[in-house]
Every structure is written in structure tokens, then in C-alpha cells.
Amino acid sequence: MIWYWNNTPYSLAQIAQGDFVSDDHALQTAWGFAQAWLAGKDVFVLPTSGSTGEPKPITITRKQMQASAKGTAQALDLASCQTALLAIHAQYVGGKMMLVRALEYGLRLTGIPAVSNPLAYLADLYGKENLPTFDFIALVPAQLYTIATETPDLLACFSGSKAIILGGGAVGEALERVVQELDMPIYNTYGMTETVSHIALKRLNGAEKTDYFLAFEGVQLGVDERDCLRICAEVTQNEWVQTHDVVQLLDNQHFVWLGRADNTLNSGGVKIQIETLEAKIEPLLRAEEIHVPFAIVGLPDDKWQQKIVLYLETPALPAETVGKLDLAFRTHLQRHEVPKEIRCLASFPRTETGKILRGAFLQS
Question: From CA 207, how far away is CA 117, in angstroms rounded?
Fold first, then answer.
């Protein structure tokens, strides 16, 4: 493997033996992990993302990480000397697994800080006319959306890619529309720290686009009484991991993700899946030219048990716009789905990986 940090190549020997000092935490973390891997370290402690509670440490073995890398390599046909881009933080499992894939399969990896627009960063580093091309890229959804909407002219360096994988956050309707215009294969991933990154992929664009996730070879799937997904595979040390993700299990390899069990509201005796309602609300916001992050939250309420509140990440909205939204909701949503309130916040509480902390709204 050849590793490029800020346009400087490093060999495996240099990584193993040399010191690397950077004021960027993501790059420094990546270098330290690579050194530990090359030194043969067998056990790693990784933090969870903290999106459903306080981040907690999880112990992962080298064998589990190698099994995870193998699953991705087989699914996407990764091979030695292909080029890869690390633009997500190596503190978490997604970034660490990009390093493991490169180290295990001899990928020519370029590492850059975890910035919102990786291609703009690369253009500043190399120049627009000399952008490198990549076979394999891992991004969070917000990064790809930023690239495609702010610097679409730079997407040419992704045009010959074998795969762009998206993880660490939900793929919203706006990004779904954007990726339909892109010709490189783009996949949504399903996984978590407990499964050592993703165990399934869903194609988002092109002729092979699907509405379901396809699990990697050797991954066993099941559901509990809540229809929440259970996973057993080599990456879980062949033990069943119980998730809180509600799915429609199509067969032993395919499933449709419906949402989080802890994101099910009970409003007036009617159960509402937050993710499903947000998907209905997004085009209604867009029709009113509202293009800001938003979140549905169920707040305690004496009458409704949980009152549906729509939060918008904006300092304020004109009263006229609020009135139009309320009318649109009453026209296009079912009665029990209509938000009882619309609230504005200048900034949302988020985890370090950018996921919205819904629980924090209860204290706002």
C-alpha cells in the first residue's frame, strides 16, 4: 500500500517506523491506527457514534475487522493498487475500516482531513486540473450532498469510481434526487460499531438501484417480536447482535429499513414512525422553498401522550410561511401525522459525527 497524506507518499515501512505529526486530529488518529495495525495489534477499543445515547467503548478484534474488510472487498471487487479516498474521521469504525481495507488489500489510499467538501480540499491541494481519481470512496451523506450542490464541476474525479459508499447518517430525499444524476455507483450502507462497519449495501442510483439492502455473504439475518433486525456473522464473532432498527425482512439476505424502534411515537393512541413521517414532510418543506435540516420529535403531552413537533434548523420563520406550512401539512398528511407545533432553533444538537440528537430536544 502507498499512502498519500496531503500529496506526500508514504510506504508501509515509513508508516510503521516513522512519526507523523499533524494538527488535524483525523489524520493523526488515522496514522496512529495504521501503525498499530502494522505492529500486529489484536484488539482495538472503538467508540459508538452516540446517536442513540452516550457513546460507549466497544472492544473489536483484528479478526473481526479483517472479516469486515473481506465482506466489502468481495461485494465491491476491491483489489490491490486500486485507489481509495479516506475523507471521514478515523476515530470511528467507518474511518478505521477504510484503513483496514487499504492495508489488507493493498489499496493506494489518499487521506485528507474530514472536511465538509473533500473535493474542494483536494482542488486546493492539487489544483482543479490535476485532481486525482479514485476507485473507492467513503463519505457521509452530507459530504456528497455538499460536493454535488456546491462543486459539481469537481465530480469528474469520481466518474470512473467502482463505488462511493455512504454511512454515518441518513440519506434524505434531497440527496436521493441528487445521486440520480450521477453516473458512478453509489451505495447506502447498513451497519454499526457492533457489526464492525457495514454488513449490507443498497444501490442508490443507476439501473441496479434497489429499495432494499443486500447483506454480505455469510451474514445471517432475523427479526425479534418488534420486527427489529438481528445479525449474526463472523464480524459479530458468530453471536447474534440485536438492533433497534425496524425492518421488513424480505428473505435471509434482503431487508428494507423502516426506521428506529425508539423513533416510534404514540400520539393519541396512533403509532407513527418518525423516519416515515419525515420523508412525507420533506417535499412539503421544499415546496415552500425551505431547505434547512429538520427533525420530528415527540414531546410529552397530557392530551396526546406524545405531541408531534417539527423542529427546523433556522433562527426564525415568517408567520406567513408557518401558516402555509400548517395548511400544507393538513392538506397532504393524515390527521394524526400533522405536527402540533413548528419550532425553530438556530442550531441542532448533534453528535461528533453529525447525527441529530433527538433526545436533546426534550430539554430545549
Answer: 27
The tens digit of pLDDT for each residue in 257-267 reads: 988 888 888 88
Strands 241-249 and 228-232: antiparallel
Which three cell numbers mark 144? 456528497
The radius of gyration of the chain's CA atoms, rounded to the nearest angstrom, is 21
Backbone angles phi, psi at 239, to 5 degrees: -115, 150
Q: Which of 161, 186, 189, 11 is nearest to 83 (CA)?
A: 161
> How far from chain centre, in Å, is Cα 297?
21
Domains assigned to the chain: 3-261 (3.40.50.12780), 268-363 (3.30.300.30)
Grid-cell match 486525482, residue found: 132
Cβ atoms within 10 Å, residue 290: 16
Determine what percent of the chain is predicted with pLDDT higher than 70.
96
3-state secondary structure of 256: strand
Nearest CA to 12 out of 32, 44, 36, 38 is that of 38
What is the residue type of 319? A
Among 295, 338, 340, 346, residue whose Cα is nearest residue 317: 346
Q: Count CA atoms within 13 Å of residue 122 on its CB side.
A: 26
Question: What are the DSSP calls for 179-202, one per residue?
Answer: HTT--S-EEEEEEEGGGTEEEEEE
pLDDT at 222 over 90: yes
Element (H, E) at 174: helix 173-179
